[in-house]
Amino acid sequence: MRSLGKLLLEGTYTTDKEDLICYGYDASGLDNCPATVVWPINTLDVIKTVKFARENGLKIIPRGAGSGMTGGSVPGEDSIVLSFEKMNRILEIDAGNLTAIVEPGVINGHLQSELEDSGFFYPPDPASLNICTIGGNVAENAGGPRALKYGVTRDYVMQIEAVLPDGRLISTGVETSKGVVGYDLTRLLVGSEGTLAMITKIRLKILPAPEAIVTILCAFNSIELAGKTVSKIIASALLPRTMEIMDRMTLMAVNKYKNVGFPENVEAMLLVELDGNRRAIVQDAEKVSNICNSFEGKIKIAEDVASRDMLWEARRAVSPALYKISPTKINEDIVVPITRVADILVAVQRISEKFGIPIACFGHAGDGNIHVNVMVDKNNKESVAKSEKIVREIFKATLDMGGTISGEHGIGLTKAKYLDMELDAVNIELMKGVKKLFDPENILNPGKVFLS
């Protein structure tokens, strides 16, 4: 890699073993050392690195913060990890046009804070928002609790600047709120998991901050009743900005991890948040409370900002809290139609009982996106042997209900073997054709999404 030093500034690349180890894994638990790591500081560095990789028969692995759950940024041995953490500038906040331009290494939570100070907000809010990057969010089409009302990352990406695997620079999309000239390459790149191009600049749509927020916590003695409450709220022409669910195991894990005082003698809790005009959301909050009560739910309303922030801090601690209990757990992010939320929660409970393996459920119940955590002990051979059967049964139940096997985590490495459960051969072949058109030499994030 000595010749790479002729192209890049000192301190923007490394082949030191200690550094390589740090960039060889993500939140999936998979790991493998790359040949080198490059920290580009601008688009030209990305172009130079791509051309170097092609000339030397190396692969390129784009990386945000490594917070992905499916192995999307795990490298191969003959690869260069392009870590975008130094391309982390907010380039522009244009209040007049409700847009912001950012580099891919900008932390989601940092952008949220900057916008909040100006009276605006960026709706996509993954649980990992304080560490995950906008570039990684775009690559995975990240969602978050507010997706119920506001949509996911794809709904806010207006323009993308990106480097193709052959080193060419492209710009997709438009600055305007409308535009239908040609194929929508911007939406194609969003969610492509770093397999088609390396994103170097993003124009995002932003929104004015809501006038007021009301947060409601509701406890239930049955996870099925909690699921039915979700469907009833949506069917009642109410649209909360978030509606999160946590089952008993999740609540116990968070209490142990953060000591937040969630009640442990309940089977499930809903965290419902409404925003908008102050008078209107007070009325909506009363309607939500009445619906929860009709399903035997016990209501508590966060009285102030500090109380609301504490609840969300606890919610965002769910994943690390469950990892604390089972470091080798399997986290899947299934989605079903909203009216089937109760059904899938019951089905998962039955699968857990059938195999004798605990399964914790939490997530964005308002849009049907449930994070199913199979608490597998990978040091136990019997537990490991059951894990794939459990995942397949959960996926089958999800698909039978008209759902999908991934709502926001993507496919990466860990879900590639399940791809054909949801997609037929024609769809997969078309997708492989798109990959080959963008990346005929298969140098960009190879092995992700497709098994071959």
Mind explaining what this structure looks like?
This protein is α+β, with helices and mostly antiparallel strands and 452 residues long. It folds into 3 domains: 2-86, Uridine Diphospho-n-acetylenolpyruvylglucosamine Reductase, domain 2, CATH 3.30.43.10; 90-208, Uridine Diphospho-n-acetylenolpyruvylglucosamine Reductase, domain 3; 212-400, Vanillyl-alcohol Oxidase, Chain A, domain 3. It has helices at 17-22, 43-55, 108-117, 134-140, 147-150, 185-189, 223-235, 248-258, 278-294, 305-316, 318-325, 341-355, 381-400, 419-422, 425-438, and strands spanning 13-14, 36-38, 59-63, 79-83, 90-94, 99-102, 120-121, 157-163, 169-173, 198-205, 207-208, 212-220, 242-247, 268-276, 298-301, 330-335, 359-364, 369-374. It has a 7-stranded antiparallel sheet with strand order 15-12-14-13-17-18-16, sandwiched between helices. A 5-stranded antiparallel sheet has the order 5-6-10-8-9. A 4-stranded mixed sheet has the order 1-2-4-3, covered by helices on one side. Strand 8 and strand 9 form a beta hairpin. Helix 7 (223-235) crosses helix 9 (278-294) and helix 7 packs antiparallel against helix 12. The chain is globular. The model has no long low-confidence stretch (mean pLDDT 95).
